[in-house]
Specification:
The chain is an all-alpha fold and 121 residues long. It contains four helices and no strands.
């Protein structure tokens, strides 16, 4: 019974830690905590003791509330990081295009195009 209580206690600690990490915006650590928490849940599924149901029902409302909040916050972080990724990708593309035009104009590249601009000055 002590082992069951320890596992449940560790599960709740991981849940609180997950909330703190998600609030801080560290998605990599959040994924690690989710994986560890999943292993604890699997261990709880395998344990069969009479007091298990009572113990889990005692923590369930709080666990569920924090878990749902974390899942929504993780999804929001995923959407935000995806938007930032595409914004960065667009900026890199624009930078490459600007660099090409600059090289053509300044005649750093071997091209008639850059030479034609220089001749028109």
């Amino acid at each position: 019974m002590v082992a069951l209580e320890d596992i449940v206690k560790k599960l709740m600690e991981d849940t609180y830690m997950l909330k703190s990490v998600v609030e801080a915006g560290d998605i990599d650590v959040a994924v690690e905590i989710l994986e560890h928490r999943e292993s604890l849940i699997n261990i709880l599924k395998q344990i069969d003791v009479p007091k298990k149901k009572e113990l889990l029902l005692a923590i369930w409302p709080e666990f569920l509330e924090i878990d749902q909040w974390c899942r929504q916050a993780i999804e929001a972080l995923r959407v935000q990081s995806e938007a930032e990724f595409y914004q960065t990708k667009t900026e890199k593309h624009q930078l490459r295009q600007t660099r090409k035009v600059h090289d053509l104009y300044s005649n750093n590249a071997h091209s008639e195009f850059g030479g034609m601009f220089d001749n028109k000055k």
